[in-house]
Amino acid sequence: MKIACRFFFAMTPIWASICLLLSCVGHLLAQSKPNILVIYADDLGLGDVSAYGKGKLSTPNIDKLAQGGLRFTNAYATSATCTPSRYALLTGQYPWRNPRAKILTGDAPALLDTAQKTVADLVKTQGYRTGVVGKWHLGLGDGRTDWNQPIQQNPNDLGFDYSFIMAATTDRVPTVYIENRRVLGLSAQDPLQVSYEKNFPEEPTALTHPELMSKQKWHHGHNQSVHNGIPRIGFMRGGKSALWTDETMADVFLEKAKDFVGSNQGQPFFLYFALHQPHVPRVPHPRFVGKSGMGPRGDAILELDWCVGEMVQYLQNKGLLENTLIVFSSDNGPVLNDGYYDDAVEKVGDHDPFGGLRGGKYSLFEGGAKVPFIVHWPARVRPGVSDALFCQLDLYASFAALLKLKTPPMDSQDQLAALLGKNKKGRQELVLEASGRLAYRSGAYAFIPPYKGAALLKEVNIESGALPSAQLYDLRSDPAQKNNLAGSSPKLVAKLGQAMQKAVGAQQKISGDIQLK
Fold this sequence. Notes:
The chain is α/β, with parallel strands linked by helices. The protein is built from 11 helices and 24 strands. The longest helix has 23 residues.
């Protein structure tokens, strides 16, 4: 642009030079606000991204983002499960402050009140076009949704100009796409009905008609309606013309994400691109089947990596990559067997999805919420590695700071300097959540209060992190949390317990079985 301007000034009359100068200034002003793309994987572990050097899978496209950007080694979702983490990312509020912020059914009412501001609301005030494509799982409507009518209390009421989503997850009904307010492809002659209370008369399930499970069989929990040869959670009837095909889902979401960017490239855009891989059921496109050698879970991660590469290449082709702030992360840690017989356990081999961390999805240990986190923005972020303590919760306030907006006091912190690699420390403390229980990060220490409950979640073979006595780990020397220092450090346990109580507030109980208020 500078070269073009200088050349034009030298070759044209003064009036043309003035016009071009104004044009150049206008172009620079238009580009002063970066496009923002949040790519959010589902159940992806630290060890699943080869840039972290912990596992055996190769993810070259995600690695390329890391090599050209900032790779965080100490970043977290707020929670060890999906709905709470997504709630925090979009609202800047700790999910455990909302008693409804837990894994939702597919017909659950909207978790976010329309009066509650989201990141999308925030950036819209600065002229951004906003979109969400992919997994939603934050509830819709008032709990009595008629899927055959325009759906209210959906992303379009929460700051998003455009939405193309699934209602919940791939393992929950309804297994349909929703574009803005309507189920895509629905026929009035075959209305869609959904229930999480009881089945519809004479509708087959995985229990009554096991022969319908032609692609995957359930291990635990997923034994109700069967669609596309896969058993799901919840009951569904009708809507046959609207049902998705699992194998083409990645392609569908990718094209919708590209369409949104292509339609809005003339102004700054914010896109929340919520990928579904490698959440169960893992049913990647045939292009990827068998490519990882680790079964459907590994193949699904290769498909995810391909989606990232395709999206980045699209931005490059459009000339948008230089000024697009890309954040890549996952909603929680990994899990192998999460309800289906899909060889995830049998074929994992010496690959370590957990990246050497203890626990995983559903767990209070580090493996529950410590996730891959990469920031890529060629115009502003220098390539490197950051050990700063960062949480997805802080994207809200950090984006506000980037756009020079003020936010009211909230859980989200302005960590823009850490996000851009200017601050190497980040947060001082962080409260993490798993199934209603809380853990605490302070500096290098991880503190878990005493809790009742099973120490091992047998169905998924993951430690819950719940023990009857307090736990204290120094993550500098013990990232795998093998050495509990609580017994030998009673003063530090008391100090961290008090600090944790102060962080969560007097109304929140932090020991024993938490009863959310």
